[in-house]
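Here is a complete protein record:
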Amino acid sequence: MTETEILFDLLKKGVSPVQAVSACEERLEHAGFERLEYKEEWTLRAGGNYYVNHHDTTLFAFTVGKEWGESLAPQIRIAAAHTDFPCLRIKPSADVRNGGYAQVNVEVYGGAILNTWLDRPLGVAGRVAVKSDDVFAPIIREFVSEKSLLTIPNLAIHMNREVNKGVELNKQTQMLPVLGLAADEILPAEQRRTDYFLSFLADELGVVKEDILDFELTVFCKEEPEYIGLADDFISSPRLDNLTSCAALVSALLDGTRAEGLNLIALFDHEEIGSRSKQGAASILLHDMLLRILKELGREKTAESDIYQSMILSVDVAHGLHPNYAGKMDITNKPVLGKGFCIKEASSQSYATDCEAVAIIQQICEAKHIPYQKFVNRSDMPGGGTLGSIASALLPVRTVDIGIPLLAMHSARELMGTADQQALKDLTEAYFSL
């Protein structure tokens, strides 16, 4: 498969962080990686390949070299991305009845562009906790709705003549998806159903609704990725932020050829809401993971010095030059879709910026003829951040932010340059090989 075919496969499967991790696991297992459980003993060997699933939505995978080199090159090379994306999440007690319609109560997750979620076919995916015999071990079931289950209809222009001047949407009252018709509207109020969504979920899982204890369910855009442009120059798809990075990192880890040290990828959850969780990059998990790996490899005495000779690539999407809003871009750094991945810099450290680390990436690109560009924000327009600075504050080593440039970032559908996925994969593969 080409890298774009691999990306399309993950975009279709990774409809929530749970399913994104499952899809990446599937690739790793097919390549012979061994699953480790953090709560169990590990037996690691030189030349071994391993992965760890952390609470279903965060994934670590690593390869152990056959030796530990003595050169100045970092012996531990880390690349990190995130599995979550801006979306809607379903609240507990989700059923809402309103004027003859069955709706679902949701909250906005991350910095979504709300109006792009209107008038689209929407599905539901994630995980559901079901009652078990052991109160400390509920049964966890993955779930993906096969059909288009929800939609959020726009208000007709006849009822809002000012709509094309811009409308602020209320997250509680105007973003509730429609699930279906409340067919029992003619019955007295006390006889009307109030469990349309929960009953559907129970039927899909083959359980009684009383056994559903809780869930983490994402509302996702059901539309699939497709090529756009005269020569298929672009890819339009939901979830490019940040499944582009997840796909490239798994590919790079599988194809990396370095015979020494440790290559590790970390696919974290909760980046879109600040990373401060047990599954996020602001936890101590990455540091603890490295310590445990080194201990299991018999390098406990040198673990601290080993860790401080490591390097981190923070891999997340960047902003590309928008042809209709060229003034929003920096006046000298103007990355264009299809011209290579971006090295992202910010003196504020919202992007991890270290000239030594940046220089390493540039030299790799020049040695391997990999196209790259640089992105910085306009000085009068603060941008977003990534997990790079967060992770490197807890693991203070050389760190650089990179990623594919997008248009329409955080829309329900985003746009990228088709050629850029290969450039990102080539860079991360070289990082794991040289």
